[in-house]
Design a protein that fits this description.
Layout (H helix, E strand, L loop, with lengths): L2 H12 L21 H18 L9 H14 L6 H13 L12 H6 L9 E5 L2 E6 L12 E5 L2 E2 H9 L9 H10 L1 H9 L5 E5 L6 E3 L21 E5 L5 E6 L9 H17 L4 E5 L8 H9 L6 E2 L14 E2 L9 E6 L6 H11 L4 E4 L7 E4 L2 E4 L6 E4 L2 E4 L15 E2 L4 H5 L4 H11 L2
Parallel strand pairs: 8-9, 9-12, 12-13, 13-18
Antiparallel strand pairs: 1-2, 2-3, 3-4, 3-5, 5-6, 7-8, 10-11, 14-17, 15-16
Helix pairs in contact: 2-4, 10-11
């Protein structure tokens, strides 16, 4: 898949109150070598910008530990350090802040500078802390889809996972987002973790000996959702076969400015149809929803809330209209509401879900969301002086009136349903199927 399509996917995945165009690196840039002093100056600049710009730089790491982390990376720098090695150091530093809106702009820079021949030559998925081959690619004569992966180049998968997770930015170290990115970019994270090896040897279930993998020549990236996505427009509405249930799919809330009326009209029309047809059950699918303006999420919530609510806490600097009492819409849905969630939900999606769960407006089904009741955004773009590495840093904190949720994990579902490897390979929508079964069970 092209760079532009990958960028669009991650913009939708992580679209919050801010988006930006990411500088494109050249394939092979991972081998560039800059003077040692240039790296050291960039590290100092990087650390200073993070601390001075972010509203809560020490919320999840102490000042002492952050300083130790910077010092440890400076000690690793030498005259032979490559750009690939350096950007991997930077990713751990910025991830230590514990803010999903403060990052190296997803993984696009690292992905693009890496030649396909160095990518890990099979596709793998993490399901409940176990790793499975989902596509053997060029190695189909050696391994099969569905086989469990135990180790790569002699390192256990649990160790590899923990090592890579340190480099993935997420709100409060939420494992949801880390899992999402690792699954999405597994082929590219592995080379960075191992220092760009040219060969790989793996241990898989039902193989007595390690398996040497053939390198790939060309790799076509794909988002790998695990189920057939019938909603191509990003927001879709349909009445299901039983005529008593409706499915509202919202893959993004990113309807800013002139686009907001499009979202508002879609919601108005959908709920007018729900009302006119006497729909009894409503399923709202926000899986993979990277967020957007909170006004859009509040407008949606008005249509299935059963009592007034206040969206943002008084400490939030912006959106004064969302700090006032918001009443349910005149045409608010009166039936049962179910919201499908996953680790791809981010930013405003977490804010939205915190209020839905706090007030019991709906039943949440799926797995841990990628964000919670508070996040930092209003991000500003930066670029390191010598290495031109792009990154963004949040400048403001947004917090809902929901309370009682931890800051270090995402909003949890009421029904924890995770797609197993067989359902993934067969593109069976485990979460939606469970919800329909729940609806149809007397």
């Amino acid at each position: 898949m092209s760079f532009s399509i990958r960028l669009l996917f991650f913009t939708l995945l992580m679209s919050g109150c801010y988006t930006q165009v990411i500088a494109q690196k050249e394939v092979g840039d991972y081998l560039k070598v800059y003077p040692k002093e240039a790296y050291l100056e960039d590290l100092e600049e990087f650390a200073t910008t993070l601390v001075k710009t972010h509203p809560q730089p020490y919320a999840f790491i102490s000042q002492k530990e952050f300083s130790k982390l910077i010092a440890s990376k400076k000690d690793l720098v030498n005259e032979n350090t490559t750009l690939g090695e350096f950007i991997w150091m930077c990713s751990e530093i910025i991830a230590s802040i514990g803010c999903g809106h403060t990052s190296l702009n997803f993984f696009n820079q690292e992905y693009h500078m890496l030649p396909d021949a160095l990518r890990f030559p099979i596709e793998v998925r993490n399901i409940e802390n176990r790793f499975y081959v989902t596509n053997p690619l060029i190695n189909a004569d050696r391994i099969e889809a569905g086989q469990e992966l135990f180790a790569i180049n002699g390192i256990a998968m649990s160790t590899i996972k923990e090592g890579i997770y340190k480099h993935i930015a997420s709100d409060g170290y939420s494992l949801g987002v880390k899992k999402k990115f690792l699954n999405t970019e597994f082929n590219s994270y592995i080379p960075y973790y191992f220092g760009f090896p040219k060969t790989y040897e793996i241990i898989v279930k039902n193989k007595q000996q390690p398996v040497a993998l053939m390198p790939i020549k060309k790799y076509d990236w794909n988002p790998r959702n695990g189920y057939k996505n019938v909603c191509k427009e990003g927001i879709c509405y349909e009445v299901l076969e039983d005529k008593n249930s409706a499915l509202l799919t919202i893959h993004s809330f990113a309807f800013y400015g002139e686009k907001y009326p499009i979202f508002k009209k879609f919601i108005d029309n959908s709920f007018q149809d729900i009302l006119s047809k006497g729909i009894k059950n409503l399923i709202i699918d926000v899986r993979g929803n990277g967020g957007g303006p909170s006004g859009a999420t509040a407008y949606l919530m008005q249509y299935f809330a059963n009592k007034p609510f206040i969206y943002f806490s008084k400490e939030t600097r912006y959106s004064d209209d969302l700090k006032q009492e918001i009443k349910p819409h005149d045409n608010a849905f009166q039936g049962k509401t179910f919201v499908l969630i996953d680790n791809g939900g981010f930013s405003a999606t977490g804010l939205f879900l915190s209020l839905v769960k706090e007030h019991k407006f709906a039943t949440l089904i799926g797995e841990e969301n990628g964000s919670t009741y508070t996040c930092n955004d209003n991000s500003a773009p930066f670029k390191l002086t010598h290495t031109d590495i792009s990154y963004k840093v949040a400048r403001s904190t947004f917090t809902t009136t929901a309370r009682g949720f931890p800051k270090h994990i995402g909003i949890l579902p009421d029904h924890n349903i995770i797609q197993n490897i067989d359902d993934f390979l067969n593109h069976s929508d485990t979460v939606l199927n469970y919800t329909l079964q729940l609806i149809n069970t007397p």
